[in-house]
Every structure is written in C-alpha cells, then in structure tokens.
C-alpha cells in the first residue's frame, strides 16, 4: 500500500486553549495511539489533502522531530458547519501484527451481461481486509468479465493474495441487472412470439 508523509510538530500542551489556538493557526490537532503513551502533535491542514479528500487509502508516515512513525488513519472529526478538519486519530503500525482496513474495489473486465444490455451495479465500493502492514493492498480487484445478465459476483470470487477478506461468503460485490430497455424488448419479443403462435 502506498504511503503519504506528513510533517508534524509534537504538542507539549493538549488542553482546550492550546487546541483552539492551534486550529486558529491553521493547524490540525492529532494523536497517535498504539505505541504505549499517546503521541500528540499538530500539522498543517493542507498536509492531509491527499489523505482525506480521496477515494484511495494510504498508510501514513508521520515525521516528528526527525523521527518517523508508520500509522494508519483511525478516525477523523469534521466541523459540521465549515467541514474543516477538527481532529485526527492515527494508529501506530507494528510490522509483525495484522491490521484491519477498508480498501476500495476496482472493477476490471467487460461483462458479457452489460454488453448484452444489462446494467452493472457495484454493491460494495469498499471491502474490509486484514493483513500485515506490508501486505495491505491498494485496492481489491473485482473481475466482472464472466458476469451474464442477472448474475452476481460474490466475495468468494475475489482473489486474495496475502490478505483476508472479512465478509460473509454470501456478500455480493457486484451484479448485472436486466435494464428496463432489455426487459421491455424481452416482453415485446415474448408477445410477438405468442401472437405468432395464435395465428397458426
């Protein structure tokens, strides 16, 4: 999985006054959990643009006073009015411990059912995976090539390489539905066939 680097500054004071002052200065208060004592720091809001405002997922390398900490984004709070980032929680990664993350689904292939007039529906835009940090995928591939009209692609058909998918076997990832136009054409064809038999 790709990483994003964020340069931060450790916070000595974490009270409400200092937090408000940090936000007024265009900084986002953050905290890193998972490594014993929580590490509090701030970083410029623009530093999170590539991490937060994207459909992709990344691990994060936080740079603090010359040291780096590998993390994942755990939680984020937005201002309900301005939509500005209020606070971000990170979780420190351990190379020897598996973690759980949601990663996007990438559709590949040309469905036979879609080419025949069906409509593709992506039921799951993200899937929950569990893996060691080094094996976390950037995305999960859903190959829809063999999907006929009315077929469904289940999570059991998704290839997994060094990671586990944490979903029930009957989870539908994508399906090809019969479009209204195709349904109407089928009904008209059935009527025409019925009418032809009556004339005979």
What does this entry look like structurally?
- With 200 residues, the chain is of the alpha+beta class.
- The chain is 18% helix and 41% strand.
- It has 4 helices and 13 strands.
- The longest helix has 20 residues.
- What are the secondary-structure elements, in order, as H or E? EHEEHEEEEHEEEEEEH
Main beta sheet strand tally, sense and closure: 6 strands, mixed, barrel
Q: Quote the distance from N terminus to C terminus.
A: 66 Å
* Count of helix runs: 4
Query: Can you tell me the residue ranges where pLDDT is under 50 for at least 5 consecutive residues?
Result: none
E-strand count: 13
Level of helix content?
A: 10-25%
- Tell me what portion of residues adopts beta-strand conformation: 35-45%
Secondary structure elements and pairings:
Layout (H helix, E strand, L loop, with lengths): L2 E8 L5 H9 L2 E7 L5 E6 L4 H4 L6 E6 L2 E12 L6 E8 L6 E10 L3 H4 L3 E4 L3 E6 L8 E4 L8 E3 L9 E2 L6 E6 L2 H20 L1
GO molecular function: 5S rRNA binding; structural constituent of ribosome
Pfam families: Ribosomal_L25p (PF01386), Ribosomal_TL5_C (PF14693)
GO biological process, one term: translation
